């Protein structure tokens, strides 16, 4: 019988969730172990985040190369519609909860977030963007990988050119929201060259204050303001 490499205790600890081990370390007052486990949990999360981010970028590029822009658009619509699910009229939701909800989603990208507020809106900017910008920075669109840059204007590029294919999911999410609710619940303000710097994600306090340009760039028309 071959010698064993691990004790039963080691096997048990190796199979435990990092979160549970971290909680135990905090409760026992072992700050050194807690910090080590917090760093480990961040690395584990980043690994899975980047794995799926890269899979999606390559899959989208494959669809675009073999089936073209319109088929890519339909595929992204399908994926985003499933992910988005049923939307609630955000006018019925407390504004602070809306901002915290978006913040909760963006925290999943594991980057620092700059938050700004003015009279009309609150805007969140990851520094850097945890997916689209990082893919560009990592050379995903350069040889030999050559992920797709969409050259021609399209609603899923905000009418812009030279747009990294991964970034097209955000315009599509806005398109679907307009079709379901009549307005985009969140609007992105893209960098001058999309994907080369971070976009801002903005939530308007009154959806009727969302500028018309955020509709027309998606091939949509802003509804008429209701009187009274």
Short description:
The protein is an alpha+beta fold. The chain contains eight helices and six strands.
Return residue spans where pLDDT drops below 50 for at least 5 consecutive residues: none
Question: In angstroms, what is the radius of gyration?
Answer: 21 Å
Residues in β-strands, percent: 5-15%
Helix and strand content put the structural class at alpha+beta
The succession of helices and strands, N to C, reads: HHHHHEEHEEHEEH
Q: What form results from the Cα inertia axes?
A: globular
Number of helices: 8
Helix content: 40-55%
Distance between the termini: 84 Å
- Mean model confidence by pLDDT: 96
Strand order of the largest sheet: 1-2-6-5
The total count of strands amounts to 6
Largest sheet: 4 strands, antiparallel
Question: Any overview of this molecule?
Answer:
The structure is a single chain. With 228 residues, this protein is of the alpha+beta class. It has a domain at 60-216. The chain is built from eight helices and six strands; from the N terminus they run αααααββαββαββα. α2 packs antiparallel against α3 (31-67), α3 packs antiparallel against α4 (69-84) and α4 (69-84) crosses α7 (169-181). It is globular and about 70 Å long. The termini are far apart. 27% of the residues are buried. The mean pLDDT is 96.
